[in-house]
Write a structure and sequence with these properties.
Elements: H1 30-38, E1 54-57, E2 63-68, E3 75-82, H2 96-103, H3 115-122, E4 132-135, E5 140-147, H4 151-166, H5 172-188, H6 192-204, H7 219-224, H8 227-237, E6 243-249, H9 253-264, E7 288-294, E8 300-309, H10 316-340, E9 347-356, E10 361-370, H11 375-392, H12 396-415, H13 422-435, H14 442-452, H15 458-468, E11 474-481, H16 491-503, E12 528-534, E13 539-544, E14 549-554, E15 562-569, H17 577-592, H18 600-607, E16 612-618, E17 622-629, H19 634-646, H20 652-666, H21 673-686, H22 697-700, H23 705-715, E18 723-728, H24 732-741, E19 768-772, E20 779-788, H25 793-817, E21 824-831, E22 837-846, H26 851-868, H27 872-889, H28 893-905, H29 916-922, H30 925-935, E23 942-947
Parallel strand pairs: 2-6, 7-11, 14-18, 19-23
Antiparallel strand pairs: 1-2, 3-5, 3-6, 4-5, 8-10, 8-11, 9-10, 12-13, 13-14, 15-17, 15-18, 16-17, 20-22, 20-23, 21-22
Helix pairs in contact: 4-9, 10-12, 10-15, 11-16, 12-14, 17-23, 25-26, 25-27, 25-30, 26-30
């Protein structure tokens, strides 16, 4: 199960119908005031609830939200939400809210022991990716997406929800078996982040109850509690007045409501129910400082938290205030992003955000990832930008771009309202139940946002941000490698930095934009040479006058979404090891720069308010483009495509910034056990090949700016061997003019080339490699094997079945029977070029004393499949899962783009998907058994094992 942590405290790398007689801010211009009055918005009017939802409350307090939505078709998503989390635990119950979540998958009134997972898998529901749950501080949520076209399954799905709500069996034997699984989940989470979190949580959470109520709990309680304790927790808190059922999907809402009333009305609230206390994080009205180091931390992070009372979004005025915060977030982060792209960026990454926190608080949070030895520079750079806005505000042009961006998102969401996924609706109603969040209908949200955006004033944005950027209730947190401990500032030093920036002679931000067009010259229009229909998949193959091939698949899966992909064979494989580093960075460097006459900052600003993104890439065996657009930005998208072929650039600032950040991120990577482990695996498999092992600082010095651009231009000099795959909401008549004007104008030399076979293959016979790195008493195991493969549609299905079946059997054996792991699985991946090869892998984490017996158990699972093949039940689970997933995939633009692009890359029949179910039916016990015996040979296993530091 996943444990959601609502705190973004650290490691954030990779941040109406009444007259408007109410208050109108004096800072609004006259036009805005008129807009407000004419639009008849009343500030204090409560936000309307989604009119398309049936919302009810039973006499026992149980609530429900039901909505019909046919995206995806023949599917329904059900969530059972309860206002019960780890915050309610007594000292002898630490971890039992989460433990209780696990137990709801291990024996219910109508689904004893593990029958729940077994039953749902037979219906095509995937454990983990579909069937899942999470526990947090204040809530526990169970999720079940199931097919809705099977009345029996739909009925049983509701029964699962009813059993989850109050009918867990809590059998002592099952409880005791689950202890080991949760212990392994706890063990897997141990490491630098956990050790540091244990130190800073009490400070960041102001010593509140939240600081010692992490959902995972404590080993002492999890491994030793009396089963009666969890039964009492269940009795106290799993009750209807704290629960809600959310149902969204392709169903009859009235019929579903009747079933909910029938099933859930008999639930009882205890006679002497415990009060559900709303715990808070109190403001201390003082500033705090803490620095935490760890020997396994590989980078330094600085964070500033300025806490404020929570602001709920209940009225129109609240919603408008939220929009103002959104505008600020966009503008300040655009400035920090621009700063991060400079030649000598002061930090690796930085960001600022006004958002919700926890325990009744909101927060203005700022973070940055420090360059090694330059913490002061990074800290001051972030604070300086906050002070700059505080003194000088933002420019009108920045404000207009932010408004444009929000407006575009609003328009795009509205255009796609009838294609909105059920999961999106579920999350809205979940937030409404748990947090009293707004639950606007599509039309209300669109109209409200559209009416309010023109009323927003720049000064209002600045004023709100100034309300949040204050010097009280401010916490500073520093997380760093142990080796940097003596270099870190103390609280007095940090306070002096705040003071020094206050006294700096700052200059107002200058918003540099360009009026130049992206391209320096217009393309010379070409033409369409030939067309061929691929009727089976409603796709058109077009050859342009310059030899470029285009595959067009118009769809109606989205109202305004078009994906654009391009592929050409070649890649870095065509360059020597001496030029490899320049070649491998070329695509990223061009993508990080501008296009044509616009540098990267000017390009980003020009694209604000447009739903378009095109990115070039160069991989080992190919080069190409990937991206998407809406109809409105189609011209811009094709201009970007043409520009990346004909006017690419690698700017000096971008080159220096990218290489500088790469070096900085490498500084302490050897501290991280996972890096050391991965590095050892790659070197065992491929020696010291620069193309396979992590590059060194010396390697990075070999990235040459001019050479990288030369290689990029070479890869995109000949478009004649490029194939473009365009899928989405367009007609042929709409798209063809762009094909002729831009794609048919691309340069060609008509060279014939293929990617080179680098002969970087793993030895078929495996070895064992033990890596000792890390403080925690835990083991990581990766069992892999490699070899030649028979690549065809049927074999691919056989090995796909083998992967799924082995994953299920490994979970049954290693997790459920032996309680030795939290998660495990098998992966069988295949490739056709440069020659057909397969990679098979099993991975899991466990305790140091269990890893060898579990390796033996995993190999035993494989032996049984090889000896007996899968059971018919297990094979049927795979087939129904594939069928159900195909139903969804066939209505996704991304799926079709992947299928068509894959057919080009692998030189396969693009219509093979139409035969998928026919081929799937041919998969048998015998064919899966044969694949297991053909590929899974025990002597070929590589055994990679990560253990703690040797003592």
């Amino acid at each position: 199960m996943k444990i959601l942590k609502p705190l973004a405290l650290a490691f954030l790398l990779p941040f109406a119908t009444e007259m408007a007689s109410a208050y109108v801010p004096s800072t609004l211009n006259s036009e805005a005031k008129v807009l407000l009055i004419n639009d008849s918005l009343k500030w204090d009017a409560k936000l309307p609830f989604d009119k398309d939802v049936i919302k009810g409350k039973l006499e026992n307090g149980f609530q429900y939200y039901i909505r019909k939505n046919a995206e995806p078709e023949k599917r329904v998503t059900m969530y059972l939400a309860m206002k019960v989390g780890s915050i309610l635990e007594d000292e002898n119950q630490l971890g039992l809210a989460h433990f209780m979540e696990h137990m709801n998958f291990n024996g219910l009134k109508h689904f004893p022991k593990n029958e729940l997972i077994d039953y749902l898998q037979k219906a095509g529901v995937r454990f983990g990716s579909d069937l899942n749950a999470y526990t947090s501080f204040d809530e526990t949520v169970y999720q079940l997406p199931i097919p809705s076209d099977d009345p029996e399954l739909l009925k049983n799905g509701l029964q699962v929800m009813r059993d989850w709500a109050q009918d867990a069996m809590l059998d002592t034997e099952e409880i005791n078996k689950e202890r080991g699984i949760i212990m392994e989940e706890m063990r897997g989470g141990r490491g630098a982040q956990q050790r540091m979190r244990d130190q800073y949580f009490p400070v960041m959470l102001n010593g509140s109850r939240y600081s010692d109520r992490l959902p995972i709990g404590t080993e002492k309680v999890v491994m030793n509690f009396d089963p009666e304790v969890i039964r009492q927790f269940h009795k106290d808190w799993y009750r209807p007045d704290l629960q809600s059922l959310i149902i969204v999907g392709d169903i009859d809402p009235k019929q579903m409501e009747a079933e909910v009333k029938r099933l859930f009305s008999d639930m009882k609230v205890p006679a002497n129910k415990k009060p559900r206390t709303e715990y808070k994080v109190d403001l201390l009205n003082k500033n705090q400082f803490i620095k935490v180091t760890d020997p396994e931390m590989s980078y330094t992070i600085g964070q500033i938290f300025i806490k404020h009372p929570e602001e709920k979004v209940v009225t129109v005025k609240d919603y408008r205030r939220d929009l103002l915060k959104d505008v600020f977030n966009q503008m300040i982060n655009a400035r920090l992003r621009e700063l991060g792209q400079s030649a000598n960026p002061p930090f690796i990454q930085g960001g600022v955000d006004i958002s919700g926190f926890i325990g009744g608080l909101d927060n203005m949070g700022a973070f940055f990832v420090s360059k090694p030895g330059q913490f002061e520079d990074g800290f001051k750079a972030v604070v300086r930008e906050l002070d700059r806005f505080q003194r000088f505000g933002f420019t009108e042009s920045e404000f207009k771009r932010a408004i444009s961006s929000i407006s575009k998102n609003n328009e795009s969401s509205y255009v796609e309202r009838d294609k909105r996924k059920s999961d999106s609706y579920v999350n809205t109603y979940l937030n409404h139940f748990l947090n009293d969040g707004p639950a606007l209908g599509n039309e209300d949200r669109y109209e409200l946002t559209k009416q309010l955006l023109p009323t927003l004033a720049l000064k209002e944005v600045e004023d709100i941000a100034k309300e949040f950027y204050v010097d009280t209730n401010r916490d500073v947190l520093i997380l760093a490698p142990e080796t940097d401990k003596d270099k870190l500032p103390d609280e007095a030093a940090v306070n002096s930095w705040f003071d020094s920036i206050d006294k700096e002679d700052l200059k107002a931000y200058e918003d540099k934009v360009s009026d130049l067009p992206m391209l320096s010259k217009a393309p010379v229009k070409g033409s369409i040479k030939s067309e061929k229909s691929i009727d089976k998949i409603e796709t058109k193959e077009i050859i342009l006058s310059n030899g470029v091939k285009v595959l067009l698949k118009p769809t109606k899966f989205k109202n305004d979404e078009i994906s654009i992909n391009a592929y050409s064979p070649g890649g870095t494989s065509l360059y020597s090891d001496a030029d490899y580093m320049s070649a491998s960075f070329a695509g990223n460097l061009v993508n990080s720069s501008g296009i044509g006459q616009l540098n990267t900052v000017e390009l980003q600003k020009s694209l604000t308010g447009k739903d378009v993104n095109i990115s070039p890439y160069i991989s080992e065996r190919a080069e190409g483009l990937r991206g998407s657009t809406d109809k409105e930005s189609l011209k811009t998208a094709f201009e970007m495509v043409y520009g990346y072929f004909t006017e690419p650039r690698i700017e000096d600032d971008v080159f220096q910034s990218v290489i500088s950040k790469q070096k900085d991120m490498m500084a302490n990577r050897e501290n991280d056990p996972n890096f050391v482990y991965s590095d050892a695996i790659q070197r065992t498999l491929y020696g010291n090949s620069i193309r396979r092992v992590p590059y060194s600082l010396k390697d990075l010095e070999n990235v040459n700016q001019a050479k990288a651009l030369e290689i990029y231009k070479d890869r995109f000099a000949d478009a004649s061997d490029f194939t473009f795959v365009i899928v989405g909401s367009f007609t042929e008549d709409e798209i063809k003019p762009y094909l002729e004007e831009y794609l048919a104008a691309l340069p060609t030399t008509n060279r014939k080339e293929e990617a080179k076979d680098l002969n970087l293959y793993e030895n078929n016979k495996g070895v064992e490699k033990v890596v000792n790195k890390g403080k925690e008493a835990k083991a990581m195991v990766r069992l892999t094997m490699y070899g030649d493969y028979t690549y065809n549609e049927q074999e691919n299905l056989n090995t796909s079945a083998l992967e799924t079946i082995l994953t299920n059997k490994l979970l049954e054996r290693l997790r459920e029977e032996e309680s030795g792991v939290y998660g495990t699985g098998a992966r069988f991946s295949v490739s056709k070029f440069p020659k057909p090869r397969y990679t098979f892998m099993i991975g899991f984490g466990t305790s140091v004393d269990k890893y060898q017996p579990l390796i033996n158990s995993a190999i035993d699972v494989i032996k049984k499949i090889k000896a007996d093949g899968p059971s018919q039940v297990d094979l049927d689970k795979f087939k129904i899962e594939e069928k159900r997933q195909l139903e969804i995939n066939l209505r996704e633009n991304g799926f079709w783009a992947g299928q068509l692009l894959g057919s080009v890359q692998n030189d396969t029949d693009p219509t093979k998907v139409t035969r998928y179910l026919e081929e799937l039916d041919k998969v048998s016990i015998e064919s899966v058994k044969a694949a297991a015996n053909k590929y899974l040979k025990e002597e070929n296993f590589y055994k990679f094992i990560l253990l703690p530091d040797a003592k």
